[in-house]
Specification:
Order of helices and strands: HHHHHHHHHHH
Radius of gyration: 27 Å
Helix content: 55-70%
Largest sheet: none
Structural class: mainly alpha
Number of helices: 11
Amino acid sequence: MADTPQHGAASASRRDAQSTRLRLLDAASGLFAERGYERATVRDIADRAGVNQALLFRYFGSKKALFGEVMARGGHEQLRTTPAERLFEVALRGMLAGGRESADRSLEVCLRSIGGSDEIADALRGLGEEYAAVLATLSESDTGSLRGDLALSWLLGIGLMRVVVGKEPLVSADPDTVCRLVVGALGGLLEGLPQTGEAGESGEGTEAGKAGALGKVGEAGEAMKAEGADGVDGTGGERARIPR
């Protein structure tokens, strides 16, 4: 049965409302990441979304409620949908993107909004604890919780230096290079992380690489034993003997 004009108008209204909500969420996410919660005004959010301020209050009730939805759509959704072993790199790439591509900016929002109201601070602390808890599952050590906190601290520290401080050469560094270096080094802290760092590229971080390295050590050891047995160095000359 064909839709009546009233039904068609209602459907169009719902689509418009959904589109407006999404524009407001996108605008708020960008401004919270760029300025932090306190400095991102309702007027600026509405202007960026291209809507009247009244619609912001109509759809979200308050700036604080809008902030909550931004964090729920971003950080909490990332936690829900990202495998634990990929979470660190996905979150890091989101910060390194700096809004230049479609990426979650929740951790940028955290960095910019630290020091806000107690309620906002509690929300940010809670999100950080969730990230740390997931990262902690990548270690079987008794210090797993501490390792999760350390990994999160490193992640936020990189974001602080790149996003807030603007430290070179980190600001201009290629995101792929940063991820390769950081994720590769982090494997010593969180054993469950995929080894994608430079060590893996050269073969030293893989099982084959480790076996090769051990083989080289073994060869060197045999050579040293042989050298010690006959007192001759690698050039065929007499080796100086060390008194025992």
